[in-house]
């Protein structure tokens, strides 16, 4: 037996275990995830449709009022941050058409959480309007809100896009990031619900195109604070449309996490994780066969 081969085999096995452990840990840090890999053209909110129940960590399928058009698009969107971390790819969730307080919603907890812990959301978004280009004009509005015991448009909207600005909103108080959003440009949005006062959350923060080191970077974030509080807890997420004016909002790579790193770190989509796991197993198997031949 060739002695140097044994440490090589053990190191390969250890590497495979570490690789698989890292993949499992990264997904375990995400209470809920949806990459919207559904059938293009299908409605996500129709209970008669087979789609709308994918992803991980959710307690139900996507539901909605049916007023807005909520479908899966084969035109994928993706975003790569300054550190090279890539989000999205594949199919996307799109909103168009009518105005409604509940275009699409989904729960990741069976009951409303009133423990006061912070909760983080991230997703990528791209807005189009035919061949229109340039800065998105005022009038178009869409928000992502916290689903608690009773959603209120004045209280629970927490990440809004009003015209060309991304803003944080708490109890109808809004603070926006001073960056003009452009048509047909993909953005990474991160949101945090914070400041539990015993009855409700008093603070919302949003970040635009952050990297993992941007948690305290005020140039890419905005915070809205309300002394009287906002959401009375959280159990899910909801999308609201209002006066889209022909705009189509596409979303992908929706992540719900318990801390900053769980939604900002470049966690691979499930298909990528499977490929990495397979690669690790293939490498380990190759080295194992090599060890047996030498033995």
Description:
With 295 residues, the protein is of the alpha+beta class. The chain folds into two domains: 1-29 and 281-295, no CATH class; 31-266, Jelly Rolls (Sandwich). Helix content is 18%, strand content 35%. The chain has three helices and 16 strands. The protein has helices at 5-28, 260-264, 270-294, and strands spanning 32-34, 68-73, 78-80, 86-88, 92-97, 100-107, 119-128, 141-147, 157-162, 165-170, 173-176, 186-196, 201-208, 221-225, 236-242, 248-257. The strands form three sheets. Strands 1, 2, 5, 7, 12, 13, 14 and 16 form an eight-stranded antiparallel beta sheet that branches. β12 (186-196) and β13 (201-208) form a beta hairpin. 39% of the residues are buried. Mean pLDDT is 82; it is low at 1-29 and 267-295.
Chain-wise SSE layout:
Elements: H1 5-28, E1 32-34, E2 68-73, E3 78-80, E4 86-88, E5 92-97, E6 100-107, E7 119-128, E8 141-147, E9 157-162, E10 165-170, E11 173-176, E12 186-196, E13 201-208, E14 221-225, E15 236-242, E16 248-257, H2 260-264, H3 270-294
Antiparallel strand pairs: 1-16, 2-5, 3-4, 5-16, 6-15, 7-12, 7-16, 8-9, 8-15, 9-10, 10-11, 12-13, 13-14
Helix pairs in contact: 1-3
